[in-house]
Amino acid sequence: MPDQRTISVLGLGAMGRALAMTALHGGHRVRVWNRTGGKDIELVAAGADRAATPADAAADADLVIACLLDHASVQAVLEPIAATLSHTALVDLTSTTPEEARQLADWARGHDIAHLDGGIMAVPDMIGGPAAAILYSGDAGTFATARPVLDLFGSAEYLGADPGLAAAHDFALLAAMYAMFAGFAQGAAMLRSAGVSATDFAERAVPWLTAMTRSLPGQALLVDSGDYRTDVQNLHFNKAALDAIVRSAREAETTADVLRPVKALVDEQVADGHGELAFARIVEGLRP
Ligand SMILES: NC(=O)c1ccc[n+]([C@@H]2O[C@H](COP(=O)([O-])OP(=O)(O)OC[C@H]3O[C@@H](n4cnc5c(N)ncnc54)[C@H](OP(=O)(O)O)[C@@H]3O)[C@@H](O)[C@H]2O)c1
Predict the structure, then answer these.
(1) For residues 71 and 96, is the Cβ–Cβ distance under 8 A?
(2) What was the pLDDT predicted at 1?
(3) Quick one: which atom of ligand 1 is closest to the CA of 17?
(4) Residue 256 and residue 183: Cα distance in Å, rounded?
(5) 93 C-alpha vs ligand 1 centroid, how far in Å?
(6) pLDDT band at 34 (very low <50, low <70, confident <90, very high)
(7) Which among 55, 189, 197, 269 has most CB atoms closer than 10 A?
(8) Residue 157 — left, alpha, or beta (φ > 0 → left; ψ -120 to 50 → alpha)?
(9) What CATH number was assigned to the domain covering residues 6-168?
(10) Is residue 124 within 6 Å of ligand 1 at its C-beta?
(11) Whose CA is closest to atom 3 on ligand 1?
């Protein structure tokens, strides 16, 4: 293989294993390390080299990929091997906050380590498939050099030199996802008391939510312009709708815990005199 590289994967949870296996299938030499033994059996059987320590895994690697639980575990694993990592390229695919990514980038710079942060927009089963996307930010040179490997994992997009950008996008997307999942749970709880299964609800929720996502670009225009004037479904309308949905939750003998913060944001806008404006104005209530 003309461009075979030595890839070190630190952390063999579900995601680290998927990344390591994908790199192996891509024809690279893969060295793997995990804190607890036994997670590398399939990888070693498929041709990966087991490393006894993080330093052994990282030594002379072309690319070191960290995929650990959180920022604290990244620090715990990487800090003792700073000298080994010096002059190598490090891609941190652990989910961290933007500030944590910037801290790691500063630490890496201080040890002559080229650092790229990544936010994985996929679950392990998706890695290596067409639906996986990974967002990157930090050292542009590392992104360019590592690209043939990164492209194996999923579509790779470079967002900019600020190391926190990938994490900021990652967590914004996850915030939207969790709010949607919680909304599904709220609806499922309300329908359960009417004897409707969550399975039936999901069948209706998928096309409904898919259709509703088409309004997001229009809402984004309002947010970006700061001009929230609207001819349709203003905040007065949404307040009446949310009040009725909360009453409906009560009738169904469920709490409205998922809806309450949304209703509070809408109520606040209406109380502040913005009832004629669009729902998207609640974003102003999320400012510090
Ligand atoms: N799974 C997903 O769907 C998904 C999607 C997007 C992003 N991610 C991100 O990818 C990262 C890994 O996720 P995962 O699904 O692989 O998680 P996981 O299965 O829970 O694995 C966590 C890994 O971190 C290691 N670890 C935890 N604390 C450690 C410490 N103090 N020192 C050394 N190693 C430590 C674990 O080692 P042990 O085996 O020894 O415990 C394990 O290898 C996370 O940041 C996650 O948010 C995951």
Answers:
(1) yes
(2) 42
(3) 16
(4) 10
(5) 10
(6) very high
(7) 269
(8) beta
(9) 3.40.50.720
(10) yes
(11) 123
Q: Is 74 in the pocket of ligand 1 (CB under 6 A)?
A: no
Give the Å distance between the CA of 74 and the centre of ligand 1.
10
CATH 3.40.50.720 residue ranges of the chain are 6-168
12-31 pLDDT per residue, tens: 999 999 999 999 999 999 99
Q: What is the pLDDT of residues 248-264, one digit of tens each?
A: 999 999 999 999 999 99
Nearest CA-CA partner of 58 in 95, 26, 92, 14 = 92
Please state, in angstroms and rounded to a whole number, the distance separating the CA atoms of residues 193 and 181: 19
The residue whose CB lies within 8 Å of the most ligand 1 atoms, and thus the one to mutate among 69, 94, 123, 126, is 69
Ligand 1 atom nearest the C-alpha of 10 is 43
175-187 pLDDT, tens digit each: 999 999 999 999 9
- Ligand 1 atom with the smallest distance to the CA of 119 is 7
Query: Alpha-carbon distance 65 to 212, whole Å?
Result: 37
Numbered ranges of CATH 1.10.1040.10 in the chain: 215-286
- pLDDT tens-digit readout, 97-144: 999 999 999 999 999 999 999 999 999 999 999 999 999 999 999 999
